[in-house]
Amino acid sequence: MRQIIVMSHGKMAQEIVNSLFMIMGKNENIDYINFTKDMSIEDLNDALINKITTKNPIILTDLKGGSPFNVAFKYKFENECELLAGVNLPVVIEVMNQVVFLNNDNIDDIKGKINEYIEFV
After folding, report:
1. What is the pLDDT of residues 43-62, one digit of tens each?
2. Suppose 13 and one of 21, 32, 72, 121 were both cysteines; which one would form an S-S bond, judging by CB atoms 3.0 to 4.6 Å apart?
3. Three-state DSSP class for 3?
């Protein structure tokens, strides 16, 4: 099963994962990395390398072009992984549902599903 890692500035990643576990139950295939003000880019890179335990993880980041995204993008350039920018709770729920519960790691299917959760109303 593929690993899912949520990365963000501050503690947003941790709280999204905590909320996810509250709604769907705890799962060992999902982890987070907080990029805090006392960390360097090298620290963030090391945290990502140390968290990855499977091939081809799915990495979800908060901002395209932000430090967590850039570190994950560098990893993607050198290794195989899927990378999404603009993470939010509905997206993480859908990724977990598809990958963990439905055993579907087809990224095109997941992209189609998560587009349903982003809209103006």
Report:
1. 999 999 999 999 999 999 99
2. 32
3. coil
